[in-house]
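Colleagues,

For the teaching module next term, I've prepared a clean inverse folding example: a structure given as tokens, and then the sequence designed for it. I'd like students to try predicting residues themselves before seeing the answer, so please don't circulate the second half yet.
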């Protein structure tokens, strides 16, 4: 998840644990909730030491504990942090840091909580990493708590914090339940994976096979609580190298453009993707797009044309609206 959501979530979690009478521990927890993402500053070293990469050692239990241990001794020397129990500062920062690890593992971006002892990943696929709904809720929370602090009766500020905490908790609970239900449908219908979208009630059931010479995929949207399942979509392509000459069919257009499209958009190549080709005059219109993630009507992909007589391709990468009916 985004940095601000991590900080706000850790703040509200700390508020629940420590209560409004211990603002120093609430602030310590919120600070620790954002610190794991400081690994972005280690990017130059991550190329040489992979354990320092983003979602590396700082997103592990050991890394969080190390940060909490150092922070518990340094906090009293920072502004707005009074001298208090070093042990409680440590506990507050440990909880805040672990909340960061949990939230990242809650999404489709994996973390390895047992580094450096194991690269085993935690990935619950219950939310997307960057979610406009969560960003909006986080913005409202930050603005509301900032405006109310010191300008309204303290009791009202506390009630607001509890209401926002309930909203966050309800959102995560809904995501978790919907992911569980989607998993049951996945098993029943024989799909191999479940991918979240920006909408907590819409998921994508996916079954794909990516071999050196062939790519196949079957997918459909799953709506939480659905009574009439949507039909699935299926596609298979043969991965071939550059070929010149006439293109005889939409299927051949897909086969010919596959490698070029994946090269044009590397992000597309590592996610579940789908392609369509339609004849239009002297060319085939071709579109390749991600089937996971957004339900805003647009998605990442590659689109363009391939000449029916010569096989010449003109492809461009972008963020666009896929063909009607494909992302419903």
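(Answer key — instructors only)
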């Amino acid at each position: 998840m985004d940095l601000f959501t991590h900080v706000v979530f850790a703040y509200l979690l700390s508020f629940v644990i420590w209560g409004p009478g211990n603002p120093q521990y609430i602030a310590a927890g919120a600070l620790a909730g954002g610190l794991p993402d400081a690994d972005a500053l280690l990017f130059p070293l991550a190329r040489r030491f992979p354990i320092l990469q983003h979602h590396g050692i700082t997103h592990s239990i050991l890394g969080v504990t190390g940060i909490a241990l150092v922070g518990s001794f340094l906090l009293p020397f920072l502004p707005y942090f009074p001298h208090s129990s070093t042990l409680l500062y440590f506990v507050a920062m440990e909880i805040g840091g672990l909340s960061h690890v949990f939230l990242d593992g809650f999404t489709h971006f994996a973390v390895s909580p047992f580094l450096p002892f194991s690269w085993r990943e935690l990935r619950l696929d219950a939310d997307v990493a960057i979610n406009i709904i969560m960003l909006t809720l986080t913005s409202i929370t930050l603005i509301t708590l900032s405006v109310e602090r010191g300008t309204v009766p303290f009791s009202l500020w506390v009630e607001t914090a509890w209401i926002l905490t309930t909203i966050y908790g309800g959102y995560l609970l809904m995501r978790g339940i919907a992911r569980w239900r989607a998993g049951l449908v996945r098993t029943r219908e024989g799909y191999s994976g479940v991918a979240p979208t920006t909408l907590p009630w819409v998921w994508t059931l996916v079954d794909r096979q990516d071999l050196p010479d062939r790519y196949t995929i079957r997918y459909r949207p799953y709506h939480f609580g659905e009574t009439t399942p949507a039909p699935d979509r299926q596609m298979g392509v043969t991965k071939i190298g550059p070929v010149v000459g006439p293109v005889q069919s939409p299927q051949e257009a897909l086969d010919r453009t596959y490698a070029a499209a994946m090269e044009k958009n590397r992000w597309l190549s590592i996610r579940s993707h789908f392609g369509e080709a339609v004849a239009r005059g002297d060319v085939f219109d071709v579109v390749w797009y991600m089937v996971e993630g957004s339900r805003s009507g647009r998605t990442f992909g590659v689109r363009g044309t391939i000449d029916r007589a010569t096989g010449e391709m003109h492809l461009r990468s972008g963020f666009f609206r896929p063909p009607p009916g494909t992302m419903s």
